[in-house]
């Protein structure tokens, strides 16, 4: 695998990946679990870009949402509710709810109980990820 060592090469590679994604999407060749020349080249170039980012750009990795947060979001989505509606339903202000949903505030025991009683979220899921 070729190593990217300059910002110029990184930007060129990024442009190439974007071009490949656009072409593959247009041709219907970028579906999950597909293995073709586009997906292989995109994967290879993306690995090179990630290595450059790790070595030179000091980019922090994206944090994954916990399954509990995803479950809460799915509940509100399927019920056509906005975040402010969810906050009201769960008895917290919008700011607190936003902080909980982004992982900047821990879930209290009383909030966990409301997740279970009002949203019907499995208690084991709450215990594991709260």
Brief descriptors of the model:
7 helices, mainly alpha, 0% strand
β-strand percent reads under 5%
- The proportion of residues forming helix, as a percent range, comes to 55-70%
User: What gyration radius follows from the Cα positions, in whole Å?
Assistant: 21 Å
Structural class: mainly alpha
- Low-confidence parts: none
Query: What's the N-to-C terminus distance?
Result: 41 Å
* Overall form: elongated
Q: What kind of sheet is the major sheet?
A: none
Number of beta strands: 0
Element order: H for helix, E for strand: HHHHHHH
> Averaging pLDDT over every residue, what do you get?
90
Number of helices: 7
Would you give an account of this structure?
The chain is 67% helix and 0% strand. The protein is mostly helical. Helix 1 (7-26) packs antiparallel against helix 2 and helix 4 (83-90) packs across helix 5 (94-101). The chain is elongated. The mean pLDDT is 90.
Element layout with pairings:
Blueprint: H1 7-26, H2 37-57, H3 67-78, H4 83-90, H5 94-101, H6 109-119, H7 123-129
Helix pairs in contact: 1-2, 4-5
In short:
The chain is mainly alpha-helical. It has helices spanning 7-26, 37-57, 67-78, 83-90, 94-101, 109-119, 123-129.
């Amino acid at each position: 695998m070729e190593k990217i060592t300059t910002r110029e090469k990184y930007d060129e590679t990024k442009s190439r990946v974007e071009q490949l994604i656009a072409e593959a999407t247009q041709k219907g060749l970028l579906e999950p679990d597909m293995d073709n020349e586009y997906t292989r080249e995109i994967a290879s170039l993306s690995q090179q870009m990630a290595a450059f980012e790790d070595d030179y750009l000091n980019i922090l990795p994206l944090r994954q949402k916990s399954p509990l947060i995803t479950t809460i979001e799915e509940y509100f989505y399927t019920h056509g509710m906005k975040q402010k509606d969810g906050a009201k339903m769960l008895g917290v202000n919008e700011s607190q709810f936003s902080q909980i949903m982004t992982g900047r505030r821990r879930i209290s025991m009383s909030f966990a109980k409301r997740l279970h009683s009002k949203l019907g979220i499995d208690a084991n899921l709450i215990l594991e990820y709260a």
